[in-house]
Design a protein that fits this description.
globular; ATP binding; 2 domains; 6Pfruct_kin; Rossmann fold; ATP-binding; 6-stranded mixed β-sheet; single chain; alpha/beta; phosphoprotein
């Protein structure tokens, strides 16, 4: 299946489980395989999970494939570092087969499950392993981008081992000192065969970024496209220093009391009381070098002014634009715009207010805020309900379906503390009463809507639901069959042509048309029959190792694939000129 013929997937879903294409699905014409490289305890999994969370948040369907998970499924009982010795032939065979199984799952995700980016999280320290991955990607028309993490700081390595590896499934109920000793010996096993990326010789034609000592230095080589540049930019902004991010909404506003959305009203009496309580809370925390950010709307500025500290106003932190529905209550919107009200309830993330924004638009707007939050230390962000939901969804890795319904009550602070592979959240209420502005997700289905409300229809200025419930797979770019071609007829000679026709005459003349249809090429890499393996030392061997054959990868040559592909693509176009 070619990249152009594949459906582009996204997290949002419409009626009957229909997959929606997000704007980010058009960033690249081919699926991308991100390949991690580096010795153990270099932060590869940390970067993989963080990068995946970011790409999914901006609308690019991404999934991590961690090779350690496949290895632990194949070998239930890990005994010692001897399993990772390069001269342990039996273990090396198991590790290679696990890698091939993982790559088969990568292929399935990118070609069949509408994935856009797959992250292959493994050491991949040898050039032989990387060549295998490159051949796999070439056979399936995937782009490859390598991310190598290099670290020679012993303190950083030791801290990573103690924070993450001690609690690893490889070391159940083991003493910390024993874990440290075994893991350091495991690292030495990998060092024997480690071949770093070489931008001056063997790897000068590869696309990659080399992250040195947790972001102190970077080396970037041959970035191919827009999505790879976004990956590079993101990785250059993240850090691992301890910090705390505080998220809260403004104090209760006058419009909150009236149930009106949007607008630029000031704080109510209880909202002013909250701002004083917030000041007391911040002082008690004794936060070092705290930065305070607000929107440019009156209610967040008034909340920050009570703190008595410097604060920055960000226009992109303003509340979601409700367009024609600004300063209206939900009851007024339902009465005046019943169709709009129903459409928003059916697909809140993708719905765009007429003349306003959708949550999807808001996520795009807030991307610079996320980048800056990743660069900073301790920050307090005083924003609005929709804005806070988008920021919270990024840190908690929430889907587009969950994002619009995250609870962000007034007069409540969310304390976010980044940890190894996620984010710890504490909810702190300052005990100041406020109205409840949260609306739960409606339980009604589209066919259960009141008769006065029309079903959802397509609106060109919004990424709303399609008219049909059938799954529609869109190409990633305009391919030959996406639009009829209008070809000009043969040009007459200058003598026979006579006077040049006027513009009106040329526009009114009937033009011959060409209908073009493109043949969809099926997948060229079919699964191979399982190859039985006999193990003498490993006691458990689940079905994972029988899913793919090592010899199958050796027997499939690129020449054979090209011949098969050329045969299938013979005469792919059929022309039918109209007269």
């Amino acid at each position: 299946m070619s990249a152009a013929a594949r459906g582009c997937g996204g997290a949002p879903r419409g009626r009957a489980g229909e997959k929606q294409c997000s704007w980010a699905s058009y960033m690249t014409n081919s699926p991308t395989l991100i390949v991690m490289i580096g010795l153990p305890a270099r932060g590869k999994t940390y970067m993989s999970k963080k990068l995946t969370r970011y790409l999914n948040w901006i609308g690019v369907p991404t999934k991590v494939f961690n090779l350690g998970v496949y290895r632990r499924e194949a070998v239930k009982s890990y005994k010692s570092y001897d399993f990772f010795r390069h001269d342990n032939k039996e273990a090396m065979e198991i590790r290679k087969r696990c890698a091939l199984v993982a790559l088969e799952d990568v292929k399935s995700y990118l070609l069949e499950e509408c994935g856009q980016i797959a992250v292959f999280d493994a050491t991949n320290t040898t050039r032989e392993r990387r060549d295998l991955i490159l051949n796999f990607a070439k056979e399936n028309a995937f782009k490859v981008f390598f991310v190598e993490s290099v670290c020679d700081d012993p303190e950083v390595i030791a801290a990573n081992i103690l924070e993450v590896k001690v609690s690893s499934p490889d070391y159940p109920e083991r003493h910390r000192e024993n874990v440290m000793d075994d893991f350091l010996k495991r690292i030495e096993c990998y060092k024997v065969t480690y071949q770093p990326l070489d931008p001056d010789a063997n790897d000068k034609d590869l696309s990659f970024i080399k992250v040195i000592n947790v972001g102190q230095r970077f080396l970037v080589n041959r970035v191919q496209d827009y999505i790879q540049s976004k990956i590079v930019y993101y990785l250059m902004n993240i850090h691992v220093q301890p910090r705390t991010i505080y998220l809260c909404r403004h104090g209760e506003s006058e419009y909150n009391l009236l149930g009106r959305i949007g607008g630029d009203s000031g704080l109510s009496a209880r909202g002013k009381q909250f701002s004083q309580a917030l000041k007391k809370f911040i002082e008690e925390q004794e936060i070092v070098d705290l930065k305070v950010w607000t929107s440019q709307l009156k209610r967040t500025i008034q909340t920050a002014e009570s703190l008595g500290v410097l604060y920055e106003q960000w226009k992109i932190l303003n509340e979601i634009d409700a367009g024609v529905c600004e300063e209206m209550t939900y009851a007024e919107i339902e009465a005046k715009y019943p169709d709009e009200f129903a459409m928003r309830d059916q697909e809140k993330y993708l719905y765009r207010y007429p003349g306003g924004e959708s949550y999807q638009d808001l996520v795009q707007r807030l991307e610079p805020v996320i980048m800056e939050l990743e660069r900073q230390g301790n920050v307090l962000v005083i924003s609005h309900q929709a804005v806070m939901r988008c920021l919270l969804a990024y840190f908690l890795d929430k889907s587009a379906d969950e994002l619009p319904y995250l609870r962000c009550p007034l007069h409540t602070i969310l304390k976010l503390t980044p940890v190894a592979y996620g984010c710890k959240v504490e909810t702190i209420s300052l005990d100041v009463e406020a109205v409840n502005t949260h609306r739960d997700k409606p339980s009604l289905n589209s066919h259960e809507l009141p008769s006065r409300q029309s079903p959802v229809r397509m609106r060109r200025n919004s990424f709303t639901l399609r008219a049909s419930a059938d799954t529609v797979k869109r190409p990633r770019h305009h391919s030959l069959g996406s639009k009829p071609l209008h070809l000009l007829g043969p040009l007459p000679s200058l003598e026979a042509r006579g006077p040049f026709p006027s513009l009106e005459a040329r526009e009114g003349a009937e033009q011959p048309q060409l209908e073009v249809t493109a043949q969809v090429v099926p997948s060229l890499c079919s699964p191979s029959p399982p190859l039985p393996v006999v193990l003498s030392e490993i006691q458990t061997l689940p079905s994972i190792l029988s899913r793919v054959s090592v010899s199958a990868w050796k027997s499939s040559s690129l020449d054979g694939i090209k011949k098969k592909k050329n045969k299938q693509l013979k005469n792919p176009l059929k022309t039918n000129p109209k007269t």
